[in-house]
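Q: Could you fold this chain for me?
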Amino acid sequence: MTFSWKTPPWDRPEDCTHLTVTITEAGGGRFRFTTEAVRGDDAIEALADLLMGPGSLLGAAPAPAALVGIVVQRGIDPAWLAQPPIQVGRDERGRWQVAVRNTKGTDATVFSPTEVRGISSRLRSQYGHGS
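A: Sure. Below is the predicted structure, expressed as structure tokens.
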């Protein structure tokens, strides 16, 4: 996969367009939700900004072992910052399932740990480590 942008989202001098929620397992059946505003024209670009942007914990490594998923939502919604409408559970095979509830027409994309690792790997091979 090559990326079609002329300027990577993490190098653009523009306002944030998406909100990301990184979900990690905190132990004892609990989860940690970390929200961040990012730039990009679509969910892939927004994820790339999260993975490669300044201060990214994910840019230098494929993805933390405790990663459950990353949700990317178009637009900045203060309600999502306070309490993301996300449900996390396991399917019958023991794999993590992330669902966005009550979206009311919101454009949200869920990336699995496998997808995050794949995109992160491609970004690192094309651009090196995060900023």
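A (continued): Residues 113-127 form the longest helix (15 residues).
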